[in-house]
């Protein structure tokens, strides 16, 4: 029941923060990468910490990856099926923005590098890798926040 209440409160907090982001005219990408992503993971965090403290660290680590992957696959799958059904029999055209491609590249790099580092460290996550991932996240956030300005700068 406590996980339910934490998830409910996190959802309400997300709605409030999304409204504040709209009022403050923050780009949706920044809101999605920071506040909304963090708030959406609070329930998973509580469940994974409870599992780890209960003596099930492997299940907790699997939950760190499996929970968001399941949410993304089911969420995107459901949304795309509904959208495709709405335009049937025509084909649904999926448009890619440069920001989406960059986000996928950053995600792919971080996941592949994590796989390599954790494998080389005998399936333990070194402290330095946490700092590297935070640095990559900050770099990605800065790149996304200033992408409109960077695109307008003359290149030479």
TrEMBL record:
Primary location group? membrane
Q: Does the keyword Transmembrane apply?
A: yes
How this chain sits in the membrane, per its record, is: Multi-pass membrane protein
Single GO molecular-function term? monoatomic cation transmembrane transporter activity
Q: In Gene Ontology terms, what is a biological process of this protein?
A: sodium ion transport
Name the residues that span the membrane.
Answer: 12-39, 59-82, 94-122, 128-146
Instruction: Please give the Pfam families that the UniProt record associates with this protein.
Output: Na_Ca_ex (PF01699)
**UniProt keyword terms in alphabetical order:** Antiport, Ion transport, Membrane, Sodium, Sodium transport, Transmembrane, Transmembrane helix, Transport
Q: Name one GO cellular component term.
A: membrane
Q: Which residues form the Sodium/calcium exchanger membrane region domain?
A: 1-142
Where's it found, cell-wise? Answer: Membrane
Name the family: Belongs to the Ca(2+):cation antiporter (CaCA) (TC 2.A.19) family. Cation/calcium exchanger (CCX) subfamily.
Record-given protein name = Sodium/calcium exchanger membrane region domain-containing protein
Q: Which organism is it from?
A: Triticum turgidum subsp. durum
């Amino acid at each position: 029941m406590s996980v339910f209440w934490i998830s409910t409160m996190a959802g309400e907090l997300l709605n409030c923060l999304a409204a504040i982001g709209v009022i403050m005219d923050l780009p949706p990408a920044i809101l999605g990468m920071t506040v909304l992503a963090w708030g959406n993971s609070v329930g998973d965090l509580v469940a994974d910490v409870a599992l780890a403290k209960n003596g099930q660290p492997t299940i907790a680590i699997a939950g760190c990856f499996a929970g968001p992957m399941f949410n993304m696959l089911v969420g995107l799958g459901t949304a795309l099926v509904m959208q495709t059904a709405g335009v049937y029999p025509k084909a649904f055209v999926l448009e890619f923005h440069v920001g989406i491609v960059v986000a996928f590249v950053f995600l792919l790099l971080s996941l592949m590098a994590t796989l390599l580092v954790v494998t080389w460290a005998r399936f333990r996550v070194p402290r330095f890798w946490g700092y590297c991932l935070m640095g990559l996240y900050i770099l990605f956030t800065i790149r996304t926040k200033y992408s409109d300005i960077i695109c307008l700068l003359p290149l030479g």
